[in-house]
Amino acid sequence: MSHRLAWLALTLSLLPTITTAQPAFQVADLGKRLGDSFSSPLYAFTPPTQAGGRVFFGFFDETRGIELWVSDGSGAGTSPVTDLCPGACSSFPSDLVAVGPLLYFSANDGDTNILFRTDGTAAGTISVFPPYSALGLKQFLPFAELGGRLLLLSDNRASGQVELWVSDGTA
Fold this sequence. Notes:
Blueprint: H1 2-19, E1 49-51, E2 54-61, E3 65-71, E4 78-80, E5 94-99, E6 102-108, E7 113-118, E8 126-129, E9 138-146, E10 149-156, E11 161-167
């Protein structure tokens, strides 16, 4: 009987939070939607990914094209991270993977796809592996987080093989 009373007390204590929930509200006006129909993509060219208490997502705007954006859930905290392909050319950020407070992603710099790491600021967005580097003709794509490390898929252009790599994210 005491378990039932404890359950009832817990349920009743939660009622004020349930009944005083705030309705949905607009955080920011991000710009025009792409295309002419309501069913066209509105914002997400990549699935949103949470890292460091913020959400990262790909979004199109008329001055930058499709670039990586970040939001902390407020209007003031919602903005493009940086314009990796300057102008309206679009970097097409993809393959977003969170490792701790950092986000790893693949994006086009106007020439080729590169693996980037960001803390959500322009200054904190850097190339992790240059394309076709000393590691050979390899293109790295973030794949998953495992134990605080980044798993990567590599397209080895020289051998034609797909390889699985692991990195601490520094190089």
